[in-house]
Amino acid sequence: MYPSEFKYLAAESVDDALTLIADHEFAEILAGGQSLIPLQKERLAMPDYVIDISEIAELDYIEETADEIRLGAVTTHTTAEESELVREHVFIFSECISKIADRLVRNRGTVGGTVVEADPDGDYMPVMKLLNPDVVVTGPDGERVIPFSEFYIGMFTVDIEEDELLTEVRLPKLPLLPEAAGVGSTYKKHVNRSGDYAIVGVAALVHVDDDGSIIDARVTIGSVGPLLTSEGAADAVVGTKLDEASLEAAADAVEAEVMPDQEGRLGAYKRAMAGEFTQQALRTAYERALADSQ
Ligand SMILES: Cc1cc2nc3c(=O)[nH]c(=O)nc-3n(C[C@H](O)[C@H](O)[C@H](O)COP(=O)(O)OP(=O)(O)OC[C@H]3O[C@@H](n4cnc5c(N)ncnc54)[C@H](O)[C@@H]3O)c2cc1C
C-alpha cells in the first residue's frame, strides 16, 4: 500500500526542526524511515506532515569524553557499528548492531530513531538496559538528560513529548567498575533465519578481579516478554570462576524470571532459549573479561 498523502518538510538544524514541530500539528519525525515508512505504508501512521531530520549535520557525530561515547541522534547503525571509538570502548554496542536485519536497514536506521521506537524485540533494547546510557532530549524549554532506565517506560513507550527531539545517546565506556582487572561483554541473538528479529536477545557484562573471579555481572533479556534484568543470573555467577554449576544456576534463574507473552509450546521454547543463550552470553563475556585482564 502507498502511504497516505503528507507534506514533506526538511529540517536543517535542531532549532529548525523544533520550530517545524511546533508549527505543524499531526507531524511525524523522519530519521532513517526504517520504522516510520513501513508504518505509513500499512496506514498505521498517517501524518499530515513528515519532518525529515536525517540531514541535520549537528545531530550526526560520534564523540568521546572521559567516561562516555556520545552519539548524535541521526548517526546510522552502520556508522556506529564501524566506529573505532565504539568498538574500543563499548564493543557490545557494535556487536549488537551487526546483528540487526541487513546492510540496507543498517545503512538507513538511526541510533535516535531506534531508541525512541523502543521496539521490545529490537536488538538495542537489552544492550540499552544493560548499559543504562543517558539519553538527551531537546525541546522548546531546552535539554533534558534522562537515564535510559527512566526514559524507557515500556514497549514502544518512552519519556519524550511531542514537541521534543531525541538528540543524543551517551554510552558509558567500559569497564563500569574501575577496580576491575578485566571486563567482557557480549550480545547474543537467537533467530531462525539471519536478519530476522530476535526470538531471544541476551546481553551480558562481566567484571573480573586479578584472580579471574567474577566481581560483578549483569544479564538482560529481550524479546521474551518485558525487557528484563536478571538479578538471579547475576547472583548465580558473582564470586565464581564461571563453572558449569553456576552457569546452570544462572540459566535456571533466567528461565524462572522471564515472562514470555506467548503461551504453550512457543512460550516454553522462548523460556528455554533464554536460559540457553544466557549461558552462551555469560561464557563469551567471561572469556573476554579474562582476556582483558591478561
Ligand atoms: C526490514 C526491517 C528489518 C528490521 N530488523 C531489525 C532487527 O532485526 N533488529 C532491530 O533491532 N531492528 C530492526 N529493524 C528496525 C531498525 O533497526 C530501525 O533502525 C529502527 O526501527 C528505527 O528506524 P529509524 O532510525 O529509521 O527511525 P524512523 O523510522 O525514521 O523513526 C522511528 C520513530 O521514531 C521517531 N523518531 C525518529 N528519530 C527521532 C528523534 N531523534 N527524536 C524523536 N523522535 C524520533 C519517528 O517519528 C518514528 O515515530 C528493522 C527494520 C526493517 C525495515
Descriptive report:
- The structure is a single chain.
- A five-stranded antiparallel sheet has the order 4-5-10-6-7. Strands 11-12-13-14 form a four-stranded antiparallel sheet, sandwiched between helices.
- By secondary structure, it is α+β, with helices and mostly antiparallel strands.
- It has three domains: 7-52, Uridine Diphospho-n-acetylenolpyruvylglucosamine Reductase, domain 2 (2-Layer Sandwich), CATH 3.30.43; 61-171, Uridine Diphospho-n-acetylenolpyruvylglucosamine Reductase, domain 3 (2-Layer Sandwich), CATH 3.30.465.10; 182-293, CO dehydrogenase flavoprotein, C-terminal domain (Enolase-like, domain 1), CATH 3.30.390.50.
- The protein is 38% helix and 25% strand.
- Residues 28-36, 38, 53, 73, 100-101, 105, 108-110, 112-114, 116-117, 122-124, 160, 165-166, 197 line the site of flavin-adenine dinucleotide.
- What name goes with the CATH superfamily of the largest domain? CO dehydrogenase flavoprotein, C-terminal domain
- Neighbour order of strands in the largest sheet: 4-5-10-6-7
Fraction in helix? 25-40%
Order of helices and strands: EHEHEEEHHHHHHEEHEEEEEEEHHH
Biggest β-sheet description: 5 strands, antiparallel
| Poorly predicted residue ranges | none
Tally of individual helices: 12
The end-to-end span amounts to 56 Å
How is the secondary structure organized here?
Elements: E1 7-10, H1 14-23, E2 27-30, H2 36-41, E3 49-52, E4 62-64, E5 68-72, H3 77-82, H4 84-89, H5 91-97, H6 103-108, H7 111-117, H8 124-131, E6 134-139, E7 142-147, H9 148-151, E8 152-154, E9 157-158, E10 165-172, E11 182-190, E12 200-208, E13 214-222, E14 228-229, H10 231-237, H11 244-257, H12 264-293
Helix pairs in contact: 10-11, 11-12
